[in-house]
Amino acid sequence: MEITNEVKQRIVAAIAADRENYPSDNRHATALGIAPSVYNAIKRGNYEKQVSDANWVGIARRLGVQLRTEMPWLAAQTPTYVFVSKQLEVCQGSGLSAILCDMPNIGKTFTAKAYVKQHKHAVYVDCSQVKTKLKLIRYIAKEFGVTSNGRYSDVYEDLVAYLRTIDTPLVILDEAGDLQYEAFLELKALWNATERCCGWYMMGADGLKEKINRAIEGKKVGYTEMFSRYGDSYSKVTPDDAQEREKFLKAQAAIVAKINAPDGADIAKIVHSTGGGLRRVYTEIEKLRRVQA
C-alpha cells in the first residue's frame, strides 16, 4: 500500500513523542526496528526516497499509529484506568511485581499502552504475539533498544545488563496466559537477574489465574516461585457480585462515552446497547460519528 504524506506526518509526530522514552537516537532506532541512517533521515525530514513503505508500516505498527484516518479518542479516568495506572507507577518506581487478573474488555490493555507512552523506560508486551521463550526475550530486548539479533544467550545477557543499568525500567506482560511453559520459566530467571532493578506487571483474564493455580496445584516446576515473586496474590478491579459488577461496567462505559461521544449523543442509549463493554462503546461512537460526517 502507498503511505500518504498525511500518514507519514502522523508517524513522524509519534516518533518524536516516543523519543522521550529512550536515552539515545540509536536505542530508539533499534526499538523501532530501523537502521540509524533511516532514523536520521526521518529526523531531518529527508525521507521521501530514503524510507521505504515497509519501514513506515513497521514503525506505525510499533507506535500504534493507524494507517487509515482514525477517530480521535480521549483516555477517560475510569476506575480501571486509575487503578491500573497506580499499580504500574508503584511497580515501576519501586522495582516491584504484580499480577492483574480480571475480566476482558474493561480497559486493561488501553491503560497499559497509554502508560507506556507517558513513562520512560516502560515497555508493553502482547504475549499472545510472542508466546515462545526466544520470541519473548528478543521482543523485550528490542523494545528497550537492545540489539535483539545474534545468539540468544548474548541477547539475554545484554538485556539483563541494560535493565540493571537504567533507572526504574518496567515490563508490562499483557495476555500472559498465552505464554508457553519455557517462556514462564525464563521470566522467572529474568526476574531473578533484575531483582529490585526492574518492575514487572503481568495482566490477563481469569484464564491466567486458572493456569497459574492449576500449575501450582500440580507442582509444576517454577510456578510457585514465580507466583511468589509477583506478590503471591492477584489484583482485581471489578466487583465479585454480579449486580455490582454490572453497575461498575456500565458506569465505566458512561465515563468513556461522555468524553468521546459526539455532542447531543444519548449516553444512556450507548451504555445500554453495549452492556458496559468498552470495545462496543468505541464501535457505537464510531457509528454515530459516521452518521454525522
TrEMBL record:
Question: Which keywords are on file for this protein?
Answer: ATP-binding, Nucleotide-binding
What InterPro entries would the database entry show?
A: AAA_22, P-loop_NTPase
- A single GO molecular function term of this UniProt record: ATP hydrolysis activity
Q: Is the ATP-binding keyword given for this protein?
A: yes
Task: Name the Pfam families for this protein.
Answer: AAA_22
Q: Which domain of life is it from?
A: Bacteria
Q: Where is the ORC1/DEAH AAA+ ATPase domain?
A: 104-199
What sections of the sequence does the record tag as coiled-coil?
none
Write down what this protein is called: ATP-binding protein
Q: Which organism is it from?
A: Bacteroides stercoris
